[in-house]
Amino acid sequence: MNSGNRLIYLPLGGCGMFGANMYVYGWGGEGSERLIVVDCGIGFPDAESAPGVDVLIPDSAWLADRLDRLEAIFITHAHEDHVGAIGHLHPELPVPVFARRFTAAVARTKFDQLGCKGSAVHEVNPWPEFIEAGPFRVAFLPVAHSIPEAAALVIDTPVGRIVHSGDLNLDRTPVLGEAHDPERIRQAAGREVVALVCDSTNVFNPQAGRSEATVAGPVAGLIDRSTGMFAATTFASNVGRLKSLATAGIQAGRSVAVVGRSMHRILGIARDTGFLEDFPEIVPLEEARYIPRNKLMLIVTGSQGERRSVSSQLSWGNYRGFDLEPGDSFLFSARTIPGNEKSVNAIKNRLSARGVAVHSAEGSPYHASGHACRPDIEEIHELVQPEIVIPMHGENQHLREHANLARDRGFKSLFVSSGMVADISSADPRVVDHVDTGVLCLDGSTRIGRRNEVIRDRRKMAESGVIAAAIEFDLDGTAWCSGVSLKGVPSRDRSSGSLTETLRKRISSTLAERGPLDEEQDEVIERIVTRVVHSTASRSVGKKPEVMVLLTSDE
Amino acid sequence: MNSGNRLIYLPLGGCGMFGANMYVYGWGGEGSERLIVVDCGIGFPDAESAPGVDVLIPDSAWLADRLDRLEAIFITHAHEDHVGAIGHLHPELPVPVFARRFTAAVARTKFDQLGCKGSAVHEVNPWPEFIEAGPFRVAFLPVAHSIPEAAALVIDTPVGRIVHSGDLNLDRTPVLGEAHDPERIRQAAGREVVALVCDSTNVFNPQAGRSEATVAGPVAGLIDRSTGMFAATTFASNVGRLKSLATAGIQAGRSVAVVGRSMHRILGIARDTGFLEDFPEIVPLEEARYIPRNKLMLIVTGSQGERRSVSSQLSWGNYRGFDLEPGDSFLFSARTIPGNEKSVNAIKNRLSARGVAVHSAEGSPYHASGHACRPDIEEIHELVQPEIVIPMHGENQHLREHANLARDRGFKSLFVSSGMVADISSADPRVVDHVDTGVLCLDGSTRIGRRNEVIRDRRKMAESGVIAAAIEFDLDGTAWCSGVSLKGVPSRDRSSGSLTETLRKRISSTLAERGPLDEEQDEVIERIVTRVVHSTASRSVGKKPEVMVLLTSDE
């Protein structure tokens, strides 16, 4: 009945990890499906698995190889993990980009930052308006989330409707942006939904989510109880929270200043797109200096402990004349993303050491999640009544838990992690293929694979340091070592002179034994030097450092 | 009244961080106090701040410089973070070591592992027996904790009694070891207590702790509901939990096997010291192979995601013939120590991807903490009724929170982090001095400071990689570059030949411009090479790698 055509779903990022969201849908004959992409976000590397890397982006190679079949890119909302990579990847995927007004404005800044034109970004109206994209018709269904104009996508295909939830919660009274509207969702789901591809972020949170409207009150109370300066941090992109915090500050009779470039950038866009009309009054930083500490509230960047953020600098001592002292208070009004605990704790500990009262979001009334919690996810399943639930946006443990949850409640469900191609047109949807994909690392001005040897070498050098040896040749072709240097290798003798001397002599004598070298000399020397370095270093420092061999040549 | 004498308290580790516990008490004239040490534990480095480091140990330099004034070392209990460093530090601190029987047995293994004699370790009986140590009299007061024979210390000084809580909870029905006995504590506190130095680990846990006796039941239920193999992990040293888990397995009608060297080591010691009489029957691994999956339970190492642990190897696929498949279950029956979230999640995600049902400890009935929670801490304050509460065993945020808690409930309290010297003999105890201390890194066979340049260099190389250049000299003393090599530096050209060649030429030409060099040539060359490498690499890869200069010499 599908006349040999199939409907496929392929996450290229965002499943099996948080961040770098990129989802592909395709319709057509096997290997000739017409394709659309949903979201194009960045991920955040951790220093252990990807040291020195700036950001992670989805690997778009699979799509670039099928450019002739790619119809368009749709961006659900303006969070970095959904829109952040569009500027990097659009040059390879030069197709139209569709997004709602606020999201489109943010998307364009991603092009600007890389000096490209954002003319490919098209603003669209929300549901019930549809955009045609090959065999697909796509509508942006407003949902509640911690940023303006977040949308789920209603994707009509030749074999039925797909609902791609995007990021959402069930907030009926958000302080900004559209409220959760069960009727709208039920209506949109309306006719038979083939598949619900659904946010899994908070599947492990047993309590239903709270409304953003409940945050300002408790924060105002907290500010009232604090005698000194009050500082609070959250995600810059969480415009709703910025508003809640500012409102709380004003309620508590304080002047409110916003500190940090990324916050001013997003507020600028929100203002331009008309989302800041009833935003509380903000005082410029210059004025803030002259306001007594107990009358001032700072809203600052760095909720995830980012190294150069304002919260980090305040914890070290001073940011542009502002410092925190005993009696002051600091509120983390954001969830700590898994993997950032260390850096966030480091800031909390430095502030605590200074005598600053630190307040956390976890289990507090000072934070409301932007994502649907377990009971909310169940409610979404009920509203959409899909033939199958496909969990997305989470680590594998979240996807698995969400799939089990759906199954236990009588829905078909399918575990699909990044790189898995699912055929969702057949009666029993299943994974039919695997794509060799993964995230790419933006490292300085280059892009490298996450398992690239460059990353491997860095991790090894971080473990054991490195020893470099310069090799020269006698006239008869016998190699000898003319210099050795250490880095990241401890040595009992501070100058580490002794170890380098020993190494130089041992390498030379071992090479001398080998005599003149001809073909394959590079491999032979590499092998010999490595062996000598490892045996000598093992004895001297108990480790086997990385080895660099410099084969010297005259001019 | 103190005739110029004072009572000091100085944490050298364990405050401001978790791990590396070491606390000093002293009595005498300023600068001539007689000293005792409580605990001597290791800490666990994180790959980001201390890459490649095996373990952290307290810096005992301050004590070593005052060896003539050091009376003895007392070990409260046998957890690694309290006893693990005794073998490493005793050679520098050759004084008697006192501990209860089980703890002493573990302490001796620390000497054995380093090939030294553990003859300095003396077994002592618990309270009310006291050990004389200079001006101090010390008794081991049995407390409940997740290891046998844990003790608080009752320390009598010329100006009154100190209670050093050690690690403890209020478990009245532990499955192993002594129960919490409020009467015993009240009695020991008996006469006026000058200071309570108290465990802060769980000050952020609002719920009172649960008894270890409540764990086996729910775990047995979980095993009953699981159709395939059941594996569980916890800390090897948590003998009580090992017993709870094994009991649950037997209750659920399964054969139980224990997998992992560290678990067998601790069970051996527990057996030798008579703590395993009523321990459930364990089957050897060889037999376990022939037991049907749904009749088998494995208790394995790796609750913190340790890289080579059994749980990690199982998540990758296979450990000595055992593998986990869809339908199997895996239980983490231990709290994840802050900083280990990444590695623990990695294991959970790999298991989830395999279709294994993963169960976590957080907020579950499958775990009971070994540490006093907030209400328990309050109860301890009430039992001891000290003049002052001094929080210990926690990061600065925990110490601060605990100090505020005590103050809010009417007790004097003092924030003392590692390196702070507190005078607790005066009417108003306060920090009077700071000791330049910190943890040391055991790296291979060497010891280095945490802020040592070796660590700094490794972190920088992890960030940006390294470029090494070999420098030779013409007869006239002009330097030139005879070879260049990269590591951890991406290069558009896979072989990275181009960049190295460019660098070699640029360095040589820049050195040639400089002409013959004489004095300070090393510094000059270092400076020039670094400048050329940074400018060239910035253009080519957008980063400034670390630089190694090899000044070559004819043998």
Annotate the secondary structure layout.
Two copies of one chain form a homodimer.
Chain A: E1 5-13, E2 22-29, E3 34-38, E4 55-58, H1 61-64, E5 70-74, H2 80-83, H3 86-89, E6 97-99, H4 101-113, E7 121-123, E8 131-133, E9 136-142, E10 151-157, E11 160-164, H5 182-189, E12 193-199, H6 216-225, E13 230-233, H7 239-251, E14 255-259, H8 261-272, H9 285-288, E15 296-300, H10 310-316, E16 329-332, H11 341-353, E17 357-359, H12 374-384, E18 386-392, H13 396-408, E19 412-413, E20 420-423, E21 430-434, E22 439-443, E23 446-449, H14 453-464, E24 466-473, E25 479-487, H15 497-514, H16 521-541, E26 546-551
Parallel strand pairs in A: 3-5, 5-6, 6-7, 11-12, 12-18, 13-15, 13-16, 14-15, 16-17, 18-19, 24-26
Antiparallel strand pairs in A: 1-2, 1-20, 2-3, 4-22, 8-9, 9-10, 10-11, 20-21, 22-23, 24-25
Helix pairs in contact in A: 6-7, 10-11, 15-16
Summarize this, please?
Chain A is α/β, with parallel strands linked by helices. Chain A has 16 helices and 26 strands.
Q: What descriptors fit this protein?
A:
homodimer
> How would you characterize the largest beta sheet of chain A?
8 strands, mixed
**What is the approximate shape of chain A?**
globular
Tell me which oligomeric state these chains represent.
Answer: homodimer
Give the end-to-end Cα distance of chain A, rounded to a whole number of Å: 72 Å
Please bin the fraction of helical residues of chain A.
Answer: 25-40%
Contiguous low-pLDDT stretches of chain A (5 residues minimum) are none
Interface with most residues: A-B, 76 and 75 residues
Task: Work out the strand percent of chain A.
Answer: 15-25%
Please tally the helical runs of chain A, counting DSSP H or I stretches of 4 or more residues: 16
Strand order of the largest sheet of chain A: 7-6-5-3-2-1-20-21
Would you count the extended β strands of chain A for me?
26
Question: What structural class is derived from the secondary structure elements of chain A?
Answer: alpha/beta
Average residue pLDDT of chain A: 93
